[in-house]
Design a protein that fits this description.
Chain lengths: ~350, ~280
């Protein structure tokens, strides 16, 4: 394993424990995404790897070498910050050239490297500008160029897309994926946006309250979320979950029942993704009745928010939104293969 | 219409207040300029004279005959040295306060300010004894150290804010780019804070240049700055007002001109905060 977090704990002086005994390992060339809500410790993990923070206990290994006590400059990693952190007193060219100047690269080679990197990120036109004259997207490209220009083996990105508007974010996302493919570097990317994680990552590490709760291929995280928390975090919209009880192979929740064979009697959490719920006729034998609450067209699909007593769910369908009026009954079918079950107390996935 | 006339009234009132303020502030200075060109008779006339035949005699009389010119050099040496010391010591201290957390940080920071709360005279005698036992009394070093000690708190107080305005990520980006923490401070953060550092340096320079009390107590002969030279012109035979004014003009004019020249940068530096990544 190339990059390893070995039992890394980080506690801050004010008593918050940002990371709790994190064990995580990934290979060179991966696009690792650290995903979690705010306060999950994902940024701390990134900063620990960069050397901007020291772990309280535990070790960080890169290619078998213990880098725990090395300062950032000796770790050979580049970093892109959320607020870009460009040097406002230098031109774009000098910003990108800065890591090379520190390494005393000869002028001709330096110029070649800076221009090649600017070319790659399509910012050649802005090389003479000041950072204050750039838009957010341009500034972010400069920050990426500066982080990669000196060919670090690993590039860290701490929520690099969060300050961009929605369209630009999509665009930059694609650019980053292309960059990763072309440069064949290891990328570590921190985000709270599950969509960024799903689209970019070769592997996703989901963090919550300082603990690693699932570490897998993004497809697998979507298909088999390890906990109820992840199920409710991943997907757009996220998975519908219902608290209820199993009695004789039938799941009973407030407002509806659903066949659930093979599970022992007792409390359980049932989950189903909005796009896997089927809309059926009232006459269907296993139809579950909900009532339409709100309809949102998110072209080309439609999101139907429906309620039944204490339970609410979202259905994602390609049907015409004009077919649904608030209050009208909605007949649904939960395909057995699409059902997820979780422990009612711990939230852990049940086999 | 009503609005316009009341607006005009308000404007005239503001102008009047400004005018009065300027007159009050400038009269002594103008009087001093005039006095430096008056002869003894014009100076001591019982009715203040606005028109008189100017004389240049006061300047050579005090700077050459009384050998006051080295005092100007002392003033420059003291102000420049103490300003440099203040920035060299104070800027890293302020950076430390802006960036790192340690127990008792705010208390220590406040303690810096309290050093300026005591009346200056209250530590004059302790300082005198202190420098006497160090063997530095009556040297320029004593004055430099004294000025540095009281200006340092000002530097730390002002510059902490300037450094706090610069996002932490700038330091971190510099460290990721290959700088050590010290390198990040010297080569990235300090240049970014340059307008603030400049403004602080100007204030330090002015405060040290104008300082009288400590300089008066700590040096009596060779190390005297201009400010301390002035009481020397109060003689048993009377005060040499023309020469006092001449020294005062030489002591204030460079500062006045300098402040005029840098006032734009000074204001920009004092309102430092436009640093955006």
């Amino acid at each position: 394993m190339a990059i390893v977090f070995d039992g890394v704990t980080k506690a801050f002086p004010d008593g918050t424990v940002a990371l709790q005994a994190l064990d995580l390992a990934f290979e060179p060339g991966e696009f690792l995404v650290l995903l979690g809500p705010s306060g999950s410790g994902k940024t701390t993990a990134c900063r620990l790897l960069a050397g901007l923070e020291r772990p309280t206990t535990g070790r960080i290994l890169v290619e078998g070498r213990d880098v725990t006590d090395l300062p950032p400059r000796l770790r050979g990693m580049g970093m892109v910050f959320q607020n870009y952190a460009l040097y406002s007193h230098k031109s774009v060219y000098e910003n990108i050239a800065y890591p090379l100047r520190i390494r005393k690269m000869p002028a001709a080679e330096l110029d070649r490297c800076v221009r090649a990197m600017a070319e790659l990120l399509e910012i050649t036109r802005y090389l003479d500008r000041r950072p204050s004259q750039l838009s957010g997207g341009q500034a972010q490209r400069v920050a990426v160029a500066r982080a990669l220009v000196w060919q670090p083996s690993l590039c860290l990105m701490d929520e690099p897309l969060s300050n961009l508007d929605a369209l630009l974010r999509l665009h930059m996302r694609t650019e980053l994926k292309r960059l990763h493919r072309e440069l064949k570097k290891t990328f570590v990317f921190v985000t709270h946006d599950q969509e960024e994680a799903m689209t970019l990552a070769t592997r996703v590490a989901v963090l919550r309250e300082g603990a690693l709760i699932q570490y897998d291929d993004p497809r697998e995280i979507y298909r088999r979320p390890a906990t109820r928390f992840i199920a409710e975090f991943i997907g757009r919209p996220a998975m519908n979950t219902f608290d209820g009880n199993v009695r004789d192979g039938v799941f009973h929740a407030s407002g509806f029942t659903c066949r659930l064979p093979g599970k022992p009697d007792g409390p359980i959490v049932l989950g189903i993704r909005p796009e896997q719920i089927q809309l059926v006729d009232a006459s269907a034998s296993d139809a579950i009745r909900f009532a339409v609450d709100v309809v949102e067209p998110v072209e080309p699909d439609v999101l139907i928010f429906a309620k039944s007593e204490a339970n609410a769910l979202i259905v994602r369908t390609a049907n015409d939104d004009r077919a649904y009026d608030p209050g009208q009954p909605l007949y649904l079918r939960f395909p057995p293969a699409a059902l997820h079950t979780f422990n009612a107390i711990s939230g852990a996935r049940l086999p | 219409m009503i609005d316009q006339s009341s607006n005009r009234a308000w404007k005239s009132f503001a102008w009047a207040v400004l005018l009065v303020t300027v007159v009050i502030a400038l009269t002594p200075y103008v009087w001093m300029v005039l006095a430096s060109f008056k002869n003894r008779v014009d100076l001591l006339s019982s009715v203040p004279k606005w028109s008189f035949t100017p004389t240049h005699a006061n300047y050579p009389a005090v700077f050459i005959d009384k050998e006051y010119w080295p005092l100007a050099i002392n003033s420059v040496l003291i102000s420049v040295s103490s300003t440099v010391l203040c920035i060299v010591i104070g800027a890293p201290a302020a950076y430390g306060f802006a960036r790192s957390d340690f127990p008792g940080k705010e208390d220590l920071f406040f303690f810096f300010l309290t050093t300026r709360m005591a009346p200056p005279i209250s530590i004059a005698v302790p300082l005198f004894l202190f420098f006497t036992s160090l063997g530095l009394i009556d040297t320029i070093y004593a004055v430099v150290i004294a000025h540095t000690s009281f200006n340092l708190s000002l530097v730390v107080w002002m510059m902490r804010g300037f450094f706090a305005e610069i996002p932490r990520e700038i330091d971190e980006a510099a460290m990721m780019d290959g700088r050590s923490r010290l390198g990040a401070f010297l080569f990235v953060v300090a240049p970014l804070a340059a307008p603030g550092i400049g403004a602080t340096a100007v204030l330090c320079f002015i405060l040290s240049w104008n300082e009288f009390l400590y300089a008066f107590i700590l040096v009596a002969f060779d190390g005297r700055p201009l400010t301390v030279g002035i009481p020397g012109l109060v003689t048993p035979h009377g005060t040499l007002w023309g020469q006092v004014a001449a020294v005062a003009i030489v002591a204030t004019l460079p500062i006045v001109l300098f402040t005029f020249l840098v006032q734009k940068q000074l204001v920009r530096g004092l309102t430092f905060g436009a640093v955006k990544g």
